[in-house]
Design a protein that fits this description.
The protein has 112 residues and is an alpha/beta fold. 34% of the residues lie in helices and 25% in strands. The protein is globular.
Length: 112
């Protein structure tokens, strides 16, 4: 599966935990709520045990340029999106799960 948006740094050298959250393209406010509450990794990470948060999603179902630009802006601001090349609809939830595992395999070799 190809990445449309990705985080260049993946996991930390002392990675302890990766939390990946299935998200939908249009759920920006929900992702923001997670970032500001239990997903605020700065409150859980320590120097020897990094915690990483990633939101996994597909591409807009209607190929909306507006939604895709909003995701690019969100990624530039937060750097925690992993967007895969499949249409983000409920029936592709298995692809989302497999894509998240693929990302972990590709970018988190140092995880415990």
């Amino acid at each position: 599966m190809e990445y449309l948006l990705n985080t260049p740094d993946g996991c930390q050298p002392q990675q302890f935990l990766v939390v990946y959250v299935h998200s939908a393209v249009e759920h920006h406010s929900r992702r923001q709520a997670v970032r500001s509450t239990w997903g605020n990794v700065s409150r859980w990470s320590t120097p020897g045990a990094a915690v990483t948060l990633r939101f996994v999603l597909g591409r807009p179902a209607n190929d909306s340029d507006h939604q895709q630009r909003a995701l690019v802006d969100e990624q530039a601001k937060h750097g925690d999106l992993v967007q895969l090349d499949f249409v983000d609809v409920y029936y592709n939830l298995t692809l989302k799960a497999v894509g998240a595992l693929q990302w972990l395999n590709d970018y988190c070799h140092s995880g415990r």
